[in-house]
Fold this protein.
Amino acid sequence: MKQTLTLQLTLTLIAPTTNLMAEETLPDSLTAAILLKLAEYNKTLQAQESLRLLILNKSAVSTILTSKLEQSIGASRLASIDTQLNEQTQYHIIYTDE
């Protein structure tokens, strides 16, 4: 039985203002880098030969990650990036900004 790990990741920067907290999202390139770094250090994901990611509602992040296809991520390699759910595919990481 294969295991699937879903990382729920909220990447926001909270910046204090006068009496309010303003929320800003991280740049897409930093979001992509953090996703790859988390995958690199996750022992469950490192047991996989190839990693498949599903990126929803964030086309810029998927574009950045697509440029890194076949790149080594620790002991694994980045095999595929999808932007739409394919029910036949088992994803290792699912990311959405919503």
Q: What stands out?
A: DSSP finds three helices and six strands in the chain. The CA atoms of residues 23 and 89 lie 34 Å apart. Helices lie at 28-41, 43-46, 59-66. The first strand starts at residue 12 and ends at 16.
